[in-house]
Structure formats: structure tokens, C-alpha cells
Amino acid sequence: MKLNSFKIGKNLIEKPIVQGGMGVGISWDQLAGNVSLEGGLGVVSAVGTGVYKDRAYIDKTAGVGRRPVEAINFYSANALKQIIANTREICGERPLAVNILYAQVDYDRVVVDACEAGADIIITGAGLPLTMPEAAKEYPDVSLVPIVSTAKALRILCRRWKKTHNRLPDAVIVEGPLSGGHQGFKYEECFLPENQLEVILPPVVEEAKQWGDIPVIAAGGIWDHEDIIKMLELGASAVQMGTRFIGTVECDASEVMKQMIVESKEEDIKLFKSPVGYPARGVKSALHASIEAGTAPKIACISNCVAPCKRGEEAKVVGYCIADRLSDAYDGIRETGLFFTGSNGYRLNEIITVKALMKKLMDGEES
Asked: Which of 65, 267, 275, 302 gives a 20 to 30 Å CA spacing to 321?
């Protein structure tokens, strides 16, 4: 089966591979720029931009690790602008997306920041983004791509967008429960057979057809060329892959994070409770041992990163501040870092270039 190009709005993506947006320094300029350069869709994460390059682009920091103070600094417009400018130096005018969490504080402001900085496409998950068109209303040329977990969610979203703004998604990502980071299902639902990607994808494809020509991008647990073929045969136009790109030279993650995942075993990758309100998948690490022992770092809501956390109330319930611990992972602090990965993270056994990985994915040349 030939792997064809596809379009998101007016943006032609040469290869049907979208690199997942991975926050707090995993997919920033180097990774996203090189994926777009190689013909896929590079995705810059807007999460935690305030810690970019040793917090050089923000106005105020505080506490241990120089945490960005408030959402205005954690989601730094200046840093995002610089990240996108650096990305453009790598990929030129090839299509480039920015991933922005719906659950984050200042969602609307960050959408505008991304559009002004030159994003071609905005991708949003972590909640059903019913108001996404309102946030981007001044930028009609920017394509909008929501993430859903069910056909019902897509139907609700399309009805709302059509009614309120007379527009529809330019593409939709359907994400199954094997992805890294936050899931679209409750903890127990992630393990049900009826919620697995190969089951939920076809109904989303059929629902998308009811609204016109909306490309569907399959995500969650996709690993190799054969997986891509399987998703395309089920009706997807493309796939999104996150974890596989952590194992690249260009990935912006710390070397500590890359090694944490390379060294992990299948039994080390777990679903955890998160202050965001959704279960999240990552490597069980020293952080989780310290939470269980009651010796985890003190929780102080400095950055005010996600609305569901209620200024640290939920962080205290689950035992950690997600902004601080993901920032530690970016800084390469193994003892207190939070290391997200998809269910297949244990299969990473080497660090290769984006160019080499894209060739493997397109041609099926697995070692």
C-alpha cells in the first residue's frame, strides 16, 4: 500500500505522519522542524514554553528550579515566538502545527500567540475543544484540528462549531488509550476492548464523512510501518506518532529522559493519576516511589498551568505538581522528573535521526 500525501485545510503534508505534540520541551524547534523538513507534520507543543532555554524569555521566576510565575510566564508568548522562529529556520515554509491543551489556563490567549507567531495548524486535545473556533476567529486561514476519542464526541463538536461559527474541523485526530501522556478515557475505560484504537477509528471515519471531507488522523500506540498501513486500511488519512520520535537525536527532550525510556521495560510503563483530571501514561520512576513514601517534593502552585488542578488542589490529591515535575524532566533531573511515554516506549532501543526514522516508517525497514 502506498503512503500518500494528505491535506489539512490548505496545507499539503507530503507524508502521512504527524509528530505528536509533547509538552515541556519534548517537541519544540529541533524535533518539529526536522519532522516538517522530512515531509511529515512537525508539531510544536505550547505547553511549558516558559522553561525554554533556561527560562531566558520570561519575566518572572520563583522557587526551587526557577519556576515560571503564573500562566503568563509558563505559557510564554515570547518563548513560543522564538521556538517557532527557530523551527522555521529548519523547515522553511513547510506546514507547521502547534499543540495547545484545552485544559490549560489561558487557552484562548495561547491560541492567538501561536497564530501570531506563524502556526499553520492548531491541534487541541485534553478536553473537547468546543470553543476552539472562537479562540482562533481572527485567523481564518489557520487550520483547526481537535482531538477526540469517540464518534459521538466528533458529532457533538461538529454540531457546535457549525452552529456557533459556521465552520468544521480541517482534520480530526482520534486517539486511542495506548498513547503517552494524558488519555481521553477514565482509568478503567483505557483497558476496555471497545475503546482500543482499531475499534474507535472506523466510527470516527464514518462520522467525519457525514460532515464532508474531513481527514481523520489515527493516534495512540502506533509504532511502525505495518501499524501505519493498518490504520490507513481502517480509513485514516494519516497517523500521529509521539513516543517513537522521542528516540531521535533531534528530540528536544533531555538525554536523561531519552535514556529513561530506552532503559524502561514493559512493566515500567504505567497509567498514573494526574492533576489534569485524566489518567496519564509514563515511566514509573523515582518520583512515584517518593510519592508512595511521602517524600515527594513539596507542592506549591507557582505556574498555575491547568484549570482542572484548581491552583494546586488536585496536585495535592495525586501527590505532585505536573508543571514542576515535567520541567524537571526537561532539565534532566532523574530523581524528581515526570517522564511521559506511550505504551510502546519500552520498545525504544536506539536513538536515531529524524531522517532515518521517517525512512523506516515510510519504507518498513525495521532493524
From this structure: 267
Confidence of residue 63 (pLDDT cuts 50, 70, 90): confident
d(CA 174, CA 125): 10
Please calculate the CA angle 299-302-308 and round it to the nearest 5 degrees: 75
pLDDT tens digit sequence for 117-146: 999 999 999 899 999 999 999 999 999 999
Q: Are 169 and 148 in contact (CB under 8 A)?
A: no
Contact 15, 38 (CB under 8 A): yes
Q: What is the pLDDT of residue 64?
A: 82
Ranges of H-type helices in 240-346? 243-246, 255-263, 286-293, 313-318, 322-330
pTM strictly above 0.85? yes
3-state secondary structure at position 182: strand
d(CA 106, CA 220): 27
In contact, 214 and 208? CB cutoff 8 Å: yes
Is-contact 235 10, C-beta < 8 A? Answer: no
Strands 17-19 and 6-8, sheet pairing: unpaired
Q: What residue ranges define each of the domains in the chain, with the CATH number in brackets? A: 6-57+73-253+349-363 (3.20.20.70)
Model confidence at 366: pLDDT above 70: no
| Contact (Cβ atoms closer than 8 angstroms) between residue 282 and residue 24 | no
Give how far the C-alpha of residue 213 lies from the chain's centroid of Cα atoms, to the nearest Å: 24
Q: What is the DSSP string of 274-285?
A: -TTSS-EEEE--
In angstroms, what CA-CA distances link 39 with 34, 48, 63, 339?
A: 9, 26, 41, 28
Adjacency order of strands within the sheet including 216-219: 17-19, 238-241, 216-219, 172-175, 143-148, 121-124, 96-99, 42-45
CB 201 within 8 A of CB 154: no
- Cα(161)–Cα(23) distance, rounded to whole angstroms? 26
- Nearest Cα neighbor of 307 from 43, 74, 51, 76 is 74
Q: What is the pLDDT of residues 72-106, one digit of tens each?
A: 999 999 999 999 999 999 999 999 999 999 999 99
